[in-house]
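Trying the structure run again after the queue cleared.
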Amino acid sequence: MCAAATVTAGLARIGLQPGENVVIQGAGMLGIYAAAIAKEQGAGQVIMVDVLDKRLEIASDFGADHVINAGQYDDEELVLKVNDLTGGRGADVVVEVTGFASVIPLGVEMLRIGGRYLMQGALYPDDNFLLASHDVITKCLTITGLHNYDSRYLGRALDLVYRSRHRYPYKRLAGPAFPLTAEGVTAALESLETHEGMRPIVKP
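Done. Tokens:
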């Protein structure tokens, strides 16, 4: 439940409110849980952005109202598409869970005036980004980072997943399964690299 607890804490830190439009950058485990949790907390439009159609398909089953393959658009088109989906306002909240700092300036552009940006994935050393300070200041933006969570958010995540277990196919997030052998562990690690599964299982 680490992924669910992490994004539960992040959405609490950023102050997600019912009816707000949310863009999630990255449909990995954190992003999938973020979509479901945001929707359960009353978010308006939940928009998932990724470059893998398979993961976007999964996101659609976990509360994402719209999915966008970022590989099919340039940056300007992506911002326009988000604006169209949010009635021309831009997103209230954008959540970065890609693991790549390079997506952050684009996510900031997707925000409305007074919007909030949550960084949770791009935590690797020396992975940097540049922002136009003019845009941050004149749009009155809030940018927040959160790496981890405390125990209360683990409890909240477990409770939410239990209550929504019939709405979202959580079992899809685990697998494929591999035997506990040298070859099996190698294959499990390779499945992460090839995006074959979200969380491979190694069975003893």
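Residues 45 and 153 are 23 Å apart (CA to CA). Worth checking whether this holds up in the mutant runs.
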